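assembly run, all chains below
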Amino acid sequence: MMKKISGFLMVALLVSGMLVGCTSKSALENEKKDKELKVGFSLSTLNNPFFVSLRDGAQKEAKQKGAELIVADAQDDTAKQASDVEDLIQKKVDILLINPTDSKAVAAAIRSANKAKIPVITVDRATEGGKVLSHIASDNVEGGKMAGKYMLDQLGDKGKVIELEGIPGTTAARDRGQGFHKALQGHNKVKILASQPANFERAKGLSVMENLLQREKDVQAVFAHNDEMALGALEAIRAAKKEIMVVGFDATEDAVKAVKKGTLSATIAQKPEEIGKQAVDISMRASKGEKVKEFYPVSLKLVTKK
Amino acid sequence: MHREMKARDLRVSWLQKMGPLAGLLLIIILLSTISHDFLSMSNIFNVLRQISINALLAFGMTLVILTGGIDLSVGSILALSGVLTAGMMGMGIEPWLASLIGIIAGAVMGSINGLLITKGRVAPFIATLATMSLFRGLTLVYSEGRPIISDDYSFVIMGQGYFLEIPIPVIWILICFFVLGFILKNTPFGRHIYALGGNEEAALLAGIRTVGVKVAVYTLSGIFAALAGIILTARLSSAQPTMGTGYELSAIAAVVLGGTSLTGGKGWITGTLIGAMIIGVLDNGLNLLNVSSFYQQVVKGAVILIAVLLDRSQKT
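ok done. output:
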């Protein structure tokens, strides 16, 4: 009995202590940062190096420009993201940056921000509902073009190539493919023998490439809409004992290793820090009343052995 | 008693048997006239090697469906067994032992399904829907969401090697095919599977240990899925935590295309192999013909529908 009571007292003490601590701290902050812009950033996950770099980029920019950045990690949980956004609205942020865990599920959260009259900017992934001021993400079209240009360079402007497409109907597949085709346009000595879907999967990349190699004995290069398919295609090429250049997209850990080893010719990397930096930069410009564009594409970079 | 039941339930009419085969032959003839590369020896082996994963899953699925059940967790079992095997090898364990551990893991997962369905009285659809998520989650936990590389030569040949010019995965499916065919036709266990799917109460009254048969069937499905996972890992030289996602649907499609009834009690393993071939040949042919990605899905859906409708019209 005594134990129980003392335990209860301990908890009560702890809780009240925490409450006091919190209130005094936030009161202080409110006084100090009255003039600073308060930016809320709801991230899909921090359990992925990509988003950690994205946050770091945003934090750096906020520090430099003198804005307060409040980051919430949804841990890839759509429900948690919804409550994260609610919390940020309660904290009266001036502007909301949202990196959706899911394009559809996030719409409700964005609508509640709309209701609270807090402008929303989506980052990396777009939303399928609610009103947003702007969207910031990697320029997949530009990335596809970079891959195409690199390939033209390596091929010396002539050769036969195969394209492995992502899941039909996804923006990434559409944009990367579009950029790639744009780059190859007008180069008449480069021929695309086949464009086939392998659904962004390694196993499918392997089997589709196996199938295509049955038909095409003379291929010089492959462009895959992501690294997984590129690495699958490499397995098929190795098994067929052929020498074919493969270019991927995303610069995943495995792919960068393969580039260093020389099996994968190149891959396209996003710049997460840059995305985070731009997100904060655009929030600040928007809050000053500057007109902002609907979409800000962030550039990518080519990763090769050299 | 058992024998009479077998005679009634095993009856897959001659026409029904010819349906899937005729469909396969039709697709093959069609594709070989349009594409010159289709009927080459190397492409035939290529297709057989590619269907090995789906065929193994579909073999296990056939047993499960024959008892009137379903196993949605096969894709997840494939993935968990694959990453476990690759992970064990990464820790320096011999490839054969790591593979054995993977197979045992598959058997354990399958028996969990079986126990949930029999002792736990959960409907197969729900039980395996839950374990599908559970095993996939464990796969992600174990692999930390990252691919595990496994390029040990003696392991990789299981998926990439040849034996007397025949791809080793093809040998695996042939062995499994003959063993299963024998079990289903010539052993009491095989007859019990048909009896159970035909009429569970009658089977129980006839003294068949239905719980034991069901658990065994789901365990076998887990073992086949694990074997598929190991072969896929060997083929890719790495285990992906996301591999096998959606494979349960292809496996079910192969079983149904082969003429096995989804309500249980009726079907045959040869039909399933033919069903898996239909799907494999179709995938291969669409690639060879460079059909656009949007139309591919239309064609696949249409072929499955036509095949099943043809099967229907023969039965009535």
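The mean pLDDT of chain B is 88.

Chain B has one domain: 14-315.

not gonna interpret more than that til we talk
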